[in-house]
Amino acid sequence: MSLRFIGAFLRSPSTVGAIWPSSPALAEEMVRSADLTAARCLVELGPGTGVFTKKIAATLPPGTRFAAIERDATLARQVADRFPGVHVIAGCATEISRHLREASLPSPDAILSGLPWAAFPESLQTRILGEIYNTLQPGGTFATFAYYGPHRLKSGRRFSDNLKNVFSSVEKSRLVLGNFPPAFVYRCKR
After folding, report:
1. Reading across the β-sheet that carries 169-172, which strands appear in turn?
2. Residue 15 within any structural domain of the chain
3. What is the pLDDT of residues 121-155, one digit of tens each?
4. What CATH number does the domain containing 69 carry?
C-alpha cells in the first residue's frame, strides 16, 4: 500500500501532498470528529489509498450512501477495487455537486477530506471550500486534517483563516501523535 501511495506522490506531488499515507490513528480521529452516527450520505475527498475509506466504511450506519472523489485515476481504481460498497468517482473536488448529481446522490450530511490544502493556492482552497459548504446539508459537518508544525506556516494559517471565513464553527481536535507527521483534525459546521 505504501508503495502505491509513494508512486502517486511521485506522479503528482502537488495533488497527493504527502509522501506517506495517513495512519489508522488519524483515520479514527477524522471519523470521530465527523460524528457519522446519523449520516445518510457521506463524501470523502481525496481517499488516496483508502486509509480513511476503510475506517469510514467500518463506522457508517447501515444504509448510508458513501461516495469518494479521487482525482488520481489509478488511486480511484484501487480504492474502488478494495471497497466495492463505496461509489468511487474519478473527478475533482471543485465539482462535488456535479459529481453527486450525476451519481444520483443527495447532498451529504458529512464531507471528510484528505486533500493537501497547504499545497493549494488560496484561490483553489477558496473554490473547493465554497463547493463543500454549498454541497453540505444545513448543519452538516466537514472534517479535514493539518500537520502539526506546518499549520503555523503562512499557507497553514491561510487555510485556517479560510475555514473560519466559510464555516460557522471551526474546532480543532487533540493532536494525533500516532501519525507521521503528527496531525490534528479541523471539525467545521455549516
Report:
1. 87-90, 65-70, 41-45, 110-113, 141-147, 183-189, 169-172
2. no
3. 999 999 999 999 999 999 999 999 999 998 889 98
4. 3.40.50.150
Q: Based on the structure, what is the number of domains in the chain?
A: 1
Domain range for 66 is 2-8+23-189
Count the helices and strands in the chain (H runs, E runs). 8, 7
User: Does residue 14 sit within a domain?
Assistant: no
From residue 102, alpha-carbon distances to 67, 73, 99 in Å are 12, 18, 5
State which H helix or E strand residue 43 sits in: strand 41-45
Please list, residue by residue across 53-68, b when 16 or more beta carbons sit within 10 angstroms of its beta carbon and e when fewer do: bbbbbebbeeebbbbb
Asked if the structure places residue 17 within a domain, the reply is: no
Place of cell 489508522: 24
| Confidence (pTM) | 0.89
Assigned C-alpha cell, 145: 486534517
